[in-house]
Structures are given as structure tokens and as C-alpha cells.
Design brief:
The protein has 249 residues and is an alpha/beta fold. The protein contains nine helices and seven strands. The longest helix has 26 residues, at 67-92. It is globular and about 55 Å long.
């Protein structure tokens, strides 16, 4: 029986990645650092999972001669970036991706448990969710964030943490991801994965997902089927997910 849905955040719940890029650039400017990450560079940096790790990698690879001094400032830079990201969320009113709010609502109405499993830090998750859900009506029973897991994706740690907190087995849940590393992480935790391609994962192979689509789709606004299982009317609904899951037994 399908008991839980587990969602990645960046690129899955919303197209947040470019706001993260802009937030880094805002932090750099505020701290008088002569750095600017354009979309092409940021796409390359996204192969490193986790914002803190991404910043460390950038310093080591692009400024090796000054790495020691810049690494000492990395916590300050990242803290400023986190504040900037929250400000950008408030300023831009970033929408959830197609079908996300609908599927969450269907799952809640049916009594399923919902979780987040993400490499991003908890404050980033909280700011995004606060922009879309009242505190008294928070949809997620569990939030497992990157700063709580020993290893980042593609290691399974954050999904295993979410499963443990939900109190369900991997066979009773479905994960939603947008990246190759995220799919690998969920699969290593034993979870089936439904993949939705996002702006910054356009070049990613989505191998390992039982279904890959452009987004979850909405009635009257169907998604594009990319690979694997196709969905009725090109819309991912809870009823269709439950039917697919029941067929696994």
C-alpha cells in the first residue's frame, strides 16, 4: 500500500536553482567579492551537491592561490547567501512547479504522509514553504534537510532519514526528483523514483526513474512524457500513482 510521498526541493517543488545562483551573487556583492556566477558556470557547479560544498569547490578550483583566506570566509559568505535567498523568495513569489500543489492536496486528502528530502539547508526549505503554505497548514509531516545528513546526494542518507522519520518502508513510498544525483540517492535508499526535468537538469540522464516527465502536469495543461511509465492524460494523479504502486505487488 502506498503510504508516503517524498519530495526533493530545488528543481522539484519549484524552480529555485536560479534564485540560489542570484543569492550567491548578491552575497558576493554585499561582501565586496569580485565574483559573479553566470548560469553556465552555475550549471557546472551544480554537479557538486549542497550549497556550502558548492562554494568550497568553487573557491578551491577557481581561486586556489587564495583558497585558505577565502575558505575562512566561507561560513560568512554562505550565511549571507541564505539570507539573500529568503529575500529573493519574498521578492519574486516563486511558484511551485505544475502539479505539485495539486498532488500534495490529493495526498493529504487521502491520508498519505508527506516528506521532504533535500540537500539544501533547512532555512531555505522553510522560506520556500512559508511562501506557499500557512504555518497552521504546513503540508509536510517530515523535513529531512542536507545539513542533517552525514553525506549528500547521491548517497542515500537524506532519504533514509526521511523514511525513518515517516515510519514507513521504501516499498511503501515514492520519491520525486529532478536530477541524476537525486535519482541515484533515492534508488540507493530503495525508493522508486518519478523524475521531473527542471531548468538546470536539462542535460541530466534520468536513468533509474520508473517514469520521467517534464512536470507533473495539470488538467488542461498536460506534461511531456520523456521515458518510462506514461500517465493517463499526461497528468500525474494520486489515483494513477496508487494504481501503479498496487501493480508492483
Amino acid at each position: 500500500m502506498l503510504k508516503a510521498l517524498i519530495f526533493d526541493v530545488d528543481g522539484t517543488l519549484a524552480e529555485t536553482e536560479d534564485l540560489h545562483r542570484q543569492a550567491f551573487n548578491r552575497a558576493f556583492a554585499e561582501l565586496d567579492l569580485p565574483w559573479r556566477w553566470d548560469p553556465a558556470l552555475y550549471a557546472d557547479l551544480l554537479t557538486v551537491m549542497g550549497g556550502k560544498e558548492r562554494l568550497t569547490h568553487y573557491i578551491d578550483t577557481h581561486h586556489p592561490g587564495e583558497a585558505a583566506s577565502f575558505q575562512a570566509r566561507a561560513p560568512e559568505i554562505h550565511a549571507r547567501k541564505t539570507i539573500a535567498y529568503g529575500d529573493l523568495i519574498a521578492e519574486n513569489g516563486l511558484p511551485l512547479r505544475p502539479g505539485i500543489a495539486r498532488l500534495i492536496g490529493e495526498a493529504r486528502d487521502a491520508g498519505l504522509r508527506l516528506a521532504v528530502a533535500t540537500t539544501t539547508s533547512r532555512p531555505n526549505v522553510d522560506r520556500l514553504l512559508a511562501a506557499h503554505f500557512a504555518a497552521s497548514d504546513a503540508p509536510f509531516d517530515v523535513i529531512a534537510a542536507g545539513d542533517e545528513a552525514e553525506r549528500k546526494k547521491p548517497a542515500p542518507d537524506v532519504f533514509l532519514l526521511a523514511l525513518d522519520r515517516l515510519g514507513v518502508s521504501a516499498s511503501e513510498a515514492v520519491a520525486f526528483e529532478d536530477s541524476a544525483a537525486g535519482i541515484a540517492s533515492a534508488r540507493a535508499a530503495g525508493l522508486p523514483v518519478l523524475a521531473t526535468r527542471s531548468r538546470y537538469t536539462a542535460s541530466h540522464r534520468l536513468d533509474g526513474a520508473f517514469s520521467a516527465v517534464s512536470d507533473l502536469g495539470e488538467p488542461g495543461h498536460p506534461h511531456r512524457h520523456l521515458a518510462g511509465l506514461a500517465w493517463p492524460d499526461n497528468v500525474v494523479t494520486l489515483a494513477a500513482l496508487q494504481d501503479w504502486h498496487a501493480g508492483l505487488r
